[in-house]
Amino acid sequence: MTIHSFPSYTHTTSPFAAEGLPSDLSEKKVGIIGLGTAGLPLLIEFARKGHRVVGFDLDEDRVKSVNEGESYLEHISANDLSSLLEHRRIEATASFKRITEVDAAIICVPNPLNANGEPDLSYVLKAAEAIAPHMQKGVLIALESTIYPSTTDGELKAALEEGSDMRAGIDFHLAFSTERKDPENPASHFGIVQKHIGGLTPRCLELAVGYYSRVHEVIKHTAKSPTEDN
Question: What pTM, to 2 d.p., does this model score?
Answer without folding.
Answer: 0.84
